[in-house]
Structure formats: C-alpha cells, structure tokens
Amino acid sequence: MEKKNLTGQLKRLFPVFQQYELLTEIVAKSQRMEIPAGEQIIGVGNRINVVPLVLDGTIKVIREDDEGNEIFLYYIKSGESCAMTLTACLRRDPSSVKAIVESPTDLLALPADVVYDLAHRFPNWNDFMTETYARRFEEMMEVIDHVAFHSMDVRLLKYLIDRSHLLQSRVLTVSRTQIAKDLNSSREVISRLLKQMEKKKLVRIDGSAVELLE
User: In degrees to the nearest 10, what's the CA dihedral of 152, 177, 211, 98?
Assistant: First the structure.
C-alpha cells in the first residue's frame, strides 16, 4: 500500500512521468529519506552517488569558490530535482555545487546507476531532465542578471521576497551572515541595507527576524 501511495504521489508531483513502468521503477529502486533543516547533503567536489527527487520541503543550491566565497543559485522544491546534480551524475563528474536543506525535506534518492538506466530506457525521464535543465538555466541567468546589472539593495529585496514566497511567510528568520553568504556580500553591508529598508518601511526588523511589509 505504501508503494502504491508513493507511486500516486510521484505521478502527481512529477506529471512528466507518464509511463507507469517508469514510476514503478523509480519507487522500487530509490530510497526515501527525511532530512532535517540545516543539513548539507552535497558538497563541492563530492562524488554524486544519488539524484534527489523532492517530494516535500526545500533544498538550497549554492556555488562556492576555492576561497569559500558563496553565492546562492536556486532552490529545489517539491516536484523538482537538481540540474547540477543530474549533469554531474551523467558525466561522472564531482559536484560543482553544495546543497543544504532549507526546510525539512522528504525526498527520493535515486542511485546514479539507475539514472543512467532510466536515461536509456524512458523518453519521459529525458523529458524531465530537459525541463529541469531549462528551468535551472533560466534561474541562473536571472542570478547573473541581478549580479551584473542590479545594485545590492535591489538584490537583497528580491532575495527576501523570493524567500518569503518559498516559505509562504512574511516573517523570515535568517541571520545577516547567512544573507551575506547567499548574496556574496558582507554582514556589514547587509545590516546597513536592512536598516535603510526599515526606514523606507519596506521591512520591520526584530532581532534576527525580518518582516516584509506591504
């Protein structure tokens, strides 16, 4: 019964998986995992042994350079996977990103050898990979545009709005240090910009909580 329910959930969250044989193959050969917030599940340079299919929750994907500087790339949400992980898996390359669980996440971990097999046997799986690549490409282009063409205050406001939509809450509990890491800035700059935004009545600040105002 549990596998039947999981098959139905998978079909609902990943509508591109139309073939019943593909759904049953994924359910049979993946491992279901529940991961708490804050846990890093992929690190830069790690070998990719599994590809995640997120059933519930959120994973944050981050690019990190050799000196430890970071920039946020995108979130993986319910009904999605990670394009960077898929690419590294199929090419047998080490991971070029790190992934941290943003909110408690329920996912299916699909082994790399199964991913290779599905890519050769099921057109729907290849459709899914194409959709995933296209979505992430658009999101990363948006990141590049904001870094190249927008000031830090605009990037910060967009970051807060995106996070608010993701968590479905206007009140965000996130440290200045974490925001600075995600935006590749400094804590001092973020603190100063938040104070300016508070004066403009865009946000209300209460300790580590930031509330987006109407």
Answer: 80
pLDDT at 165 over 60: yes
Total domains in the chain come to 2
pTM given for the model: 0.76
Q: Could you report the per-residue pLDDT of 150-159, keeping only the tens digit for each? A: 788 888 988 8
Kindly state whether residues 47 and 69 are assigned to the same domain.
Answer: yes
Same domain as 185, residue 97? no
